[in-house]
Amino acid sequence: MTIETVKIPILAVTDTILFPRTLVTLRIVEARYRQLVEDALSKEGEIGVSLLQPGWERDFAEKSSVFSTGGMGVIVDHKRKGDDELEILVQGVHRFAIEEHLQTRPYRIARVRLLEETIRARCETRKNSRLLVRYFREIAKAADSYTSSLGRLQRLDYQTLVNSICAWLNFSIYEKQRLLEVEDLRERGESVLEILRGHVYDVRLISQFRHLQPEDSRFN
Predict the structure, then answer these.
(1) For labelling alongside 4, which of 36, 74, 196, 219 has CA 20 to 30 A away?
(2) pLDDT tens for residues 36-47?
(3) How far lies 55's CA from each of 41, 49, 65, 66, 126, in Å?
(4) What is the pTM of this model?
(5) What is the rounded distance in angstroms from the CA atom of residue 218 to the CA atom of residue 199?
(6) For residue 88, pLDDT beyond 50
(7) Is 65 within 8 Å of 43 (Cβ atoms)?
């Protein structure tokens, strides 16, 4: 469902997907993108983040195509690191669909349709929420990356929970792009749940053979 149409600068990236209600840190080194950030900060701080399509390495950056579905966010913090680098913290607000590219230089500006997150039946997400939290915690513990913040997962609303796991999980950036394009939140959550089940299966399988691992890490 469309919320409204707006004009925003587009940051074309190779390794980041911005989901609604998530935070991402971006390192800005190109002069044109530093200008984009400065121009955005002089207004309301709104920018779009779009993933470059495969093959971008062969083209000039301004000629490379981006996926039409991206994430719009607001720059909530920034700091300069020397003369040639900025670090920005972006809060995801909406998904969007690009309607028209208005310019490519010095950076992209596009007219986009903001897309609303939809969910068919909220009551049916409760079981999935419990499974998402349980599986994600198990994976985090196995990777020794469990933190106190993960203890608050069960208190997140369904949209924030699903999108946060989409952002945190370590899998193909194009798989994350596919998830971003899914309009129905329940369907997105079910897709994430299937991915988590696969990860949990691998974690449990590896744990069964951990006792065979040599004490000396030089021997495999």
Answers:
(1) 36
(2) 999 999 999 999
(3) 31, 18, 9, 10, 40
(4) 0.85
(5) 26
(6) yes
(7) no
What burial letters (b/e) apply to 123-135, b meaning 16+ CB within 10 Å? eebeebbeebbeb
Q: Domains in the chain, please, with CATH?
A: 2-115 (2.30.130.40), 122-208 (no CATH)
Integer Cα distance of 61 and 109 in angstroms: 14
Q: At 60, list the tokens.
A: 């000039």
What is the distance between the alpha carbons of residues 10 and 49, in angstroms, rounded to a whole number? Answer: 6
Length of the chain: 220
Residue 150 to residue 163: CA distance in whole angstroms: 14
Q: Which residues of 182-191 are buried (b: 16+ CB within 10 A; e: fewer)?
A: beebbebbbb
Residue 197 carries which side chain, given as an amino acid letter? R
